[in-house]
Amino acid sequence: MDEKNWLADEFEANREHLRVVAFRMLGSRAEAEDAVQEAWLRLTRSDRGSVDNLGGWLTTVVARICLDMLRSRKTRREEPLDLPAHGAIVDIASNPEREAAFADSVGIALLVVLQTLSPAERVAFVLHDMFDLPFEEIAAVIGRSAAAARQLASRARRRVQGQPETPDVDLARKRSIAEAFLIASRNGDLEGLIAVLAPDAVFLPDAAATRLGNVVPLRGAGVIAESFKGRATSAKVALVDGEIGLVVFIEGQLRVVLALSFDGDRISTVDAIADPGHLRDIGYSILEG
User: Fold this and answer.
1) Are 268 and 147 in contact (CB under 8 A)?
2) Residue 260 pLDDT exceeds 80
3) Which domains does the chain have, with CATH numbers?
4) Between helices 54-76 and 29-45, what is the axis angle to 10°?
C-alpha cells in the first residue's frame, strides 16, 4: 500500500470521531463535515513525518478549524443549530460516572447551552469534558495557558450544569487583587507586586504580545514583578470572559488582554493575549469605580 492510500485509510478510520468532535463544537452537521474535510486537506499538505499520533493531531487540527469557524460566526452574529433526535446524538462518553454527571445535559438541551458559550469556552469544555484532552493540549488550540484553559472549561461546565455563576464576593476579592497589582505596577512597587503574585506564578505572552511588548515567558514572582515594575500605565481592570482580568488600550484600540488565574489570594498565571483573532473572541467589560 502506497503512502497516499495508507493516509486515506487512516483518515477514514478517524473520520467519525472527528465528525463528532466538530458537531459538538459547531452544532451543525454541515459545518462539521466542512471542518472534517478541511482537516483532510491540511493533512495532505502537512509533514507527516513530524506527526507521532495521527488521531491526536487530527483532533487538534479539527478543534482549531472549529474555533476559527466559531469566531467567524460570532463576527457575523450567526448561530446555526441542528436539532436532531436524542438518539442521533453520540453519548458524551462511555465513562459511566461522566454519563451520570452530565445525564441532564445530553442531547438537544446540551447543544442549546453550548450555543451560549464563548468560542474558547466551548472548545475547552468539549475537548476536555467530552473527549478527555489534557489542558496542556487544549491550551495550544485556544492560544491560552493550561490554567486559563482549565478556567474556561470550569466556567462552561458550571453553565452546562445550571450552576450559578461565580459569586460576587469571589469576583470582588479577585478584583481587589488585580487592582493592587495595577497600582503596584504603575508605582514601580516591586514588593507590592510580589505580594500579590504566587511564588511560582507564570507569565505567558502569545506571539503577538511578545512582539508588541518585547517580553518573554517568565516563571516566578520576582522576575514577573521586575518585568511589570513601572508598566501597565494604560491597563484597566475588567471582566474578561466572566473572570477578573486586565485590558490595555493603545490609541483607543484594545491591543492586549491580560487574563488572570488565581491561587487563593494571589495571581498564579498572567496570560498576555494580543493576537487580533483571539482578541475578537474575548468578551470584556471594564470595571469602573
Assistant:
1) yes
2) yes
3) 3-160 (1.20.140), 168-286 (3.10.450.50)
4) 130
